[in-house]
Description:
The structure is a homohexamer. The first copy, chain A, is of the alpha/beta class and about 325 residues long. Chain A has one domain (about 1-310): Ribokinase (UDP-N-acetylmuramoyl-L-alanine:D-glutamate ligase, 3-Layer(aba) Sandwich). Chain A is about 35% helix and about 25% strand. Chain A contains 11 helices and 14 strands. In chain A, helix 1 packs across helix 9 (about 265-280). The interface of A and D includes residues 20 and 57 of A.
Amino acid sequence: MTVVTVGEILMRLSHTALRRADGFVAHFGGAEANVAIALAGLGVQARHVTALPDHDLGQAAFDALRRYGVDPSFILRGAGRLGLYFYERGASLRPGKVIYDRAGSLFSLLPPSAYDLRGALAGADYLHMTGITPALGENARKLTLDAVRLAKEMGVKVSFDLNFRSSLWTEEDAFAFFEAILPSVDLLTASSDGLAVLGQENAGTDLKKAELAARAIAKKWGIPAVALTLRESVSANFNRLSALYLSDMVYTSRVYPVEIVDRVGGGDAFSAGLLYALLNREENPAEFAAAANAYKHTVEGDFLCVSSGEIRALMAGDVRIRR
Amino acid sequence: MTVVTVGEILMRLSHTALRRADGFVAHFGGAEANVAIALAGLGVQARHVTALPDHDLGQAAFDALRRYGVDPSFILRGAGRLGLYFYERGASLRPGKVIYDRAGSLFSLLPPSAYDLRGALAGADYLHMTGITPALGENARKLTLDAVRLAKEMGVKVSFDLNFRSSLWTEEDAFAFFEAILPSVDLLTASSDGLAVLGQENAGTDLKKAELAARAIAKKWGIPAVALTLRESVSANFNRLSALYLSDMVYTSRVYPVEIVDRVGGGDAFSAGLLYALLNREENPAEFAAAANAYKHTVEGDFLCVSSGEIRALMAGDVRIRR
Amino acid sequence: MTVVTVGEILMRLSHTALRRADGFVAHFGGAEANVAIALAGLGVQARHVTALPDHDLGQAAFDALRRYGVDPSFILRGAGRLGLYFYERGASLRPGKVIYDRAGSLFSLLPPSAYDLRGALAGADYLHMTGITPALGENARKLTLDAVRLAKEMGVKVSFDLNFRSSLWTEEDAFAFFEAILPSVDLLTASSDGLAVLGQENAGTDLKKAELAARAIAKKWGIPAVALTLRESVSANFNRLSALYLSDMVYTSRVYPVEIVDRVGGGDAFSAGLLYALLNREENPAEFAAAANAYKHTVEGDFLCVSSGEIRALMAGDVRIRR
Amino acid sequence: MTVVTVGEILMRLSHTALRRADGFVAHFGGAEANVAIALAGLGVQARHVTALPDHDLGQAAFDALRRYGVDPSFILRGAGRLGLYFYERGASLRPGKVIYDRAGSLFSLLPPSAYDLRGALAGADYLHMTGITPALGENARKLTLDAVRLAKEMGVKVSFDLNFRSSLWTEEDAFAFFEAILPSVDLLTASSDGLAVLGQENAGTDLKKAELAARAIAKKWGIPAVALTLRESVSANFNRLSALYLSDMVYTSRVYPVEIVDRVGGGDAFSAGLLYALLNREENPAEFAAAANAYKHTVEGDFLCVSSGEIRALMAGDVRIRR
Amino acid sequence: MTVVTVGEILMRLSHTALRRADGFVAHFGGAEANVAIALAGLGVQARHVTALPDHDLGQAAFDALRRYGVDPSFILRGAGRLGLYFYERGASLRPGKVIYDRAGSLFSLLPPSAYDLRGALAGADYLHMTGITPALGENARKLTLDAVRLAKEMGVKVSFDLNFRSSLWTEEDAFAFFEAILPSVDLLTASSDGLAVLGQENAGTDLKKAELAARAIAKKWGIPAVALTLRESVSANFNRLSALYLSDMVYTSRVYPVEIVDRVGGGDAFSAGLLYALLNREENPAEFAAAANAYKHTVEGDFLCVSSGEIRALMAGDVRIRR
Amino acid sequence: MTVVTVGEILMRLSHTALRRADGFVAHFGGAEANVAIALAGLGVQARHVTALPDHDLGQAAFDALRRYGVDPSFILRGAGRLGLYFYERGASLRPGKVIYDRAGSLFSLLPPSAYDLRGALAGADYLHMTGITPALGENARKLTLDAVRLAKEMGVKVSFDLNFRSSLWTEEDAFAFFEAILPSVDLLTASSDGLAVLGQENAGTDLKKAELAARAIAKKWGIPAVALTLRESVSANFNRLSALYLSDMVYTSRVYPVEIVDRVGGGDAFSAGLLYALLNREENPAEFAAAANAYKHTVEGDFLCVSSGEIRALMAGDVRIRR
Lengths: 323, 323, 323, 323, 323, 323
């Protein structure tokens, strides 16, 4: 079982109050890389395709992937800058916030031809990409299209997470791009932001509404499988999470009430959990994916790196200390 | 729009367990200085009148005001000590606690004549002081009276926060002093502690009771405007906050459920929010002030320094991460 | 009033994510030592009997007991290793976890004859031990039996906390040992884990079920007093705690809802609170013990070190900041 | 006495090993802003002209200038990115290193016309700029020329620090630019890097060689005053620092042996010390400037913020603790 | 062997740059308490007499003494403040500095009659006090005289360290007090500051000069034993330390070149080393005391707590890692 | 080019004062693993053979190797404990110290047959082991012999670092073991400790003495190549390092004066530098190895992970900041 992910790796610099920050905690992350790392932790072969600067920080990002078992063979190195983002954790009624500082990164400047996509996709089961990459500019948009096209050509299934970031592009541009790519997608994942771009309203954790939205999308673009991450944001510290997965039938998870340690990367853990569940023919893919999402919210950093056993334990619901 | 604040600046030294502390986090604060900083952040001109030691720590306090845009021109410097307080954050059923170490501070020892109050008040809209200053001893009590008297004389409105600290003076002394000053007050703010000194019971977040209390106080001392911060302390980590503002009519805010990051300075953020709202003729001053109060509880340190837009966003209630 | 405790002291090394730990916070603790320290804080004479390595870390453990007022005169020093455990704090749906690294510790290798038990027990009111010590191997099992036997002989009451750690021994071995010792016990404390070993089901915070369990145990082994700590684990961050104490009559506490700062050592604070309450003829020993348990959950580290006044304040329920 | 500085403010992110960094300490700095802050600390009026993003980090940089007494009235705010640099402190035989991430910053993108240079220079004694600004691109180069031209026109003396950064432009481009600007300079400061661009060899701390170099430069470009910072780099932790100042006569300082706390910003402290010394007609400007340089090396962060008394104490040479 | 020390315990709050401190590291210390702790570490019975506030910080100071084995039985507790000092570590050419905030401390306000000096001195070999205590005001001055007088009466030898702090009293006042007390002193210790008060010049590490000074003092006041700590301050990071001890004959130590970790408390470690050496009839008391002094400079915090073996190892001079 | 290393990985827990440690910094290391990581950083294929517990900390050690590019395919996982050591950094005249807590580790308990040594050695150029492994007990001793024997059989050269740890075994046992293995060694590395076991005196940095020692050893045991790391320990912070390499001729390095950041792992960096130099036919292997050793002393942690370019830059001697 092998999954190939393509996308930018960023360094996140966190502080509880950006305006008063006298230092930052650093984590590496990126929607697709987070999926790769989570899959590697779950025992799935993961190859990540990206470009990283040839200085120490680029090397550190490279090391991070290697550390958690992702195959870095298809990572380019070159002169350029590493994308960054500054992150202020929210609390209670004060939402978290992000200052992106990723414009002009090496990844956003390289043309698709720079990468050995064919080599990376050889023998893979899935290609996983997200709506963030095409938002990074012309090169990245073309890279997304090329990778999806090549995957289809090589018989690799396409998983796409409909991440939408309003600070990177407009809803109109996003919709136009998504329209072009959706017919090639085998597995579509979306949260409320992505649903909005497709013209669907926020379902919160209402499974009925969610099912209607999933069916509408699947039908409109002929997508065989659609997964939705459902979230009710009670406060910046406390959310309720659920999931729906529609393929030949509808699967739903229960609602996970989560006291949040780190809000970032939940959707990526969801995608990884879903891909794992599908590759391993889990009985209820929605449950496993929702549990992975919930688990990620309890862990600091952009990615989740745990075994399937740990996710199953969370599903089982015993929160007593293990000693 | 200009507000003048007068009062002591303290250095707060925090640790989660004072008895086992091997170090402290330092913040500067003080009821009136907190109001000045919050107002400066909201775009109101703020001048703070105080006295600070001429050593590095006094300079650091001076720098802190300057950093956040408060006009420090009326700050005295001289030989003496800086008031301190040690703070242990509460958690759950264990309340936070404070060890004051402010006796003998430079501010408490200087006579009112040392300050250029007339210069500071020139052209100001409001003078804001609190019940903490008169609790600091004879000089500070006289300073409070002199400043209020001069403000009235110069046509500057008097805002007074009825803070009461039982560790600094008795309820009897406080009441006697408040009796003397209340007839000169244009805008009175109080929480349950202050209400108790005036013989009113804790209203929790009961708006009916709160209105009765406000009306009683306004009537008894002929105060044109009375604002109450309402609080239900569920645990040291979780409070419910609300507000009532009585002038020509009664304004009330909704109830904000707050997971607390830092308990200190909420009332000062309330005062600043209220003064901003009045100076800017906000539709519902109680709502803005309550939101400022709630916001402060989500931020570490003694003061709040955010734009009015950020407070309005909290009022709007969207707690999802912004990216 | 004097209580003697016998047991191993461990160094706990904590990190929020053991797999990614680049450092650890260190605390000393151990079920019985935690009780000794809590009792010393409450003003009860406490002597702790243990063995510690003669290197700097052993000295640090020795210093920790001394620091909080425990009499260290009966602590042995010698060549060997200090028991350790690594602790990952849980959050929300992710439970905390412990990696024990205590095998082969000096304490577990010494024979009972190495200790001056008779000297330690001279003049004591209670000997307090727990189910952890006999789980540490042959020597420690024999030490437990010897200490209990000697206490009975010397007229010292035996308090025993039925801690059960499935990672140290099997339920069968534990039951066999407990069977042997229970008839000598004057005061038995147990939580759901210990109840399970004795064949009783988890009562959660159901006082009816708890009373039945306590009565069954008291009757079966002829134990004059049985105390149960009752817990409902809502999440790793939030528990509800209660207690029942059965002697000549039944005492129950109210339910304390606790946002958890540190999960470790709650049961030991309970035991200390109970012993203090019994020695001081508190009206409701269950209430005091439950409050001590709840208090411990709000404090970082393995042990609780507060005065009885602070526990009474928690019982009184005022969570507002004290200044 | 007023000095105007023009230049970019960067956020420096430091770690002892960039490749393994899990977090960074943040400082604000920039060659010209460092001079402004140091001058403000010495009691000289300092205005800094720059552009900063309108997000929290830009505000933090703005706050930093304000905190230390620099007049921020001429700072532009707008959409864009803040220049960054990553810094790895050197140790012993391993030199410190810098990864610049400043391309595309707001400052580098704005045209000179965006700034109110005339307003900023009004009534000033000196304009101080450095060789870093023209290395930042076309806009910044033009800004440098415009500012210098306007200063000359308005009768403001021009101080220029011949900083050369090989990672920003080539020696040839630098030399071409310096040739154009040097005839307008009233006070030129240079270290060995700058000397090299002008074709002079590194003098180490050899005062003879240094004097020859200074005289050659002064003569060739008709510069009335030339100051050289002299340095012998024994290790990354230990340097020997000295200075020469040539105007109507030659002033030299003694050699300061310095165990280095923070290598960055020494030259800027030198420039500030020199400007202060000239504005205050110090007897030996070289000595004061060299002492400011040495002092900076003992203090963490990009800038020095001390009184002239503290610099004089360092010149006096008593290193015993003051208590 | 028992030594009684009398004096104030302070909390030291350290930061590398007081003006920019956002937090402080806390250590407890005090000239005489440092001696008590060092002696306890060396295996000498040590009783410390002082007064501490009855709040958490006072308890923390109490715990600190207990932790390191000092007998706290003669410590008073009461309402009042704890003396503090803020400490900025020096580096290279920048000296360390201290801001005292100890005025009005509980210790300085209590009369001598509050203490059980007779009980504390019972059975002691030495009373050790320093020149800091009489500098704290009338009460403390009287306490010093009373303690010395009582010691003489009870046959306890008097050890006195001629610490002089110019920020606490004048040289004239100090000299007047020292004149009164010196004839009662059995063992006098002094560094250059103390020597200056007695009219002797700084000997640096010149043993000849030091011997002359010691002999002059011994003769003038009839003191049986005089010890001098000799220091050459090369930089704030690097000193050369030596010692001379004059009794029936002259003992000198070699010169220890010390890279300084923490400058505070060196003289107290010297006093403790000297008392230990005299009580244990070490061959060369000066060598042992100088080594203790040097050792302290390599350890963070106000006091030294090591075994005599560790000091002897330092004397032996092997600096290779021990593993 | 491939090097295979075999040996235990430990977790090091560091604090500046073990007796007062309230937490530890964690690093992974181990003599042979350090060599593997350094080689991987230098671009040499490195496989490490070891056994690690199957819990999170074992996984963390596994991740650490992977992170820095070492091939972990031959690492066993199983139930057991991870070896630890506690490390107190020395300073000035106080040497660093180590408390080993590695007895009973999984690695020390497994028999040689558990490992796939043949697979690991396939195609390798060098097997590198050290004198630490045979000191860990019977299994590890046999593993050393088996690995060396198999390497000889498979035509893989044997590199052996004569590390001697007196806390793990006696000089007599070590000598007996070394006698058995030395005739099979192709490349022997030793520092003064190892030399002492072989009956050679400490050469300091005296190249003459060192050459005699190297020749004596080479001759006595018929070893084709002998390398010596030479060290003069001026203080715990400052050493002088040099090297001698004897094969067909004698190579010596210059003397590197090093201000020490981290003392641990210098010899391992030396071994890695030497193997790299030999594999790459560097002109002067001693110089490269000595520079690697010196470089390691300037970097925190157990291992060095830099490119050959960075080592060459250190050899070139320019310590000025690179920006």
